[in-house]
């Protein structure tokens, strides 16, 4: 058992929640919560279908890497909160809120 508290991930628009784990990707956690999220390339930053918005708790999420950045550049509707769920990993203990975009994600 872990000696410290991990945060809660809240998934909008459904409002489902799941406990985070350090090092887990947001994609993994979203799927564990029972949400449908596209991940056509299997989590390799190649497809962009797992595009989400991180609405809160960005300090608890890993920084955007070069590959993710390059992929995000190709997606329509990207904003300052955009992440690829497969590339964003939990790094901190602050609660996180994400918004799923589904078919509005520009693909
Ligand atoms: S699953 Fe393909 S970019 Fe995330």
TrEMBL record:
BP terms from Gene Ontology: P450-containing electron transport chain
PROSITE patterns for the chain: 2FE2S_FER_2
InterPro entries: 2Fe-2S_ferredoxin-like_sf, 2Fe-2S_ferredoxin-type, Adrenodoxin-like, Beta-grasp_dom_sf
Domain of life: Bacteria
Keyword set includes NAD: no
SUPFAM superfamilies assigned to the protein according to its UniProt record, in alphabetical order: 2Fe-2S ferredoxin-like
Cofactor dependence: [2Fe-2S] cluster
Similarity field: Belongs to the adrenodoxin/putidaredoxin family.
Protein name (Swiss-Prot/TrEMBL): Ferredoxin, 2Fe-2S
Gene source species: Methylococcus capsulatus (strain ATCC 33009 / NCIMB 11132 / Bath)
């Amino acid at each position: 058992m872990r000696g410290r508290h991990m945060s809660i991930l809240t998934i909008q628009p459904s409002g489902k929640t799941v406990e985070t784990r350090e090092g887990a990707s947001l994609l993994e956690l979203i799927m564990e919560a029972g949400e449908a999220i596209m991940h056509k390339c299997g989590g390799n930053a190649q497809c962009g279908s797992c595009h989400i918005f991180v609405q809160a708790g960005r300090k608890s999420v890993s920084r955007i890497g070069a590959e993710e950045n390059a992929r995000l550049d190709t997606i329509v509707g990207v904003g300052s909160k955009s992440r690829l769920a497969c590339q964003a990993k939990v790094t901190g203990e602050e609660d996180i809120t994400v918004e799923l975009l589904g078919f509005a994600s520009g693909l």
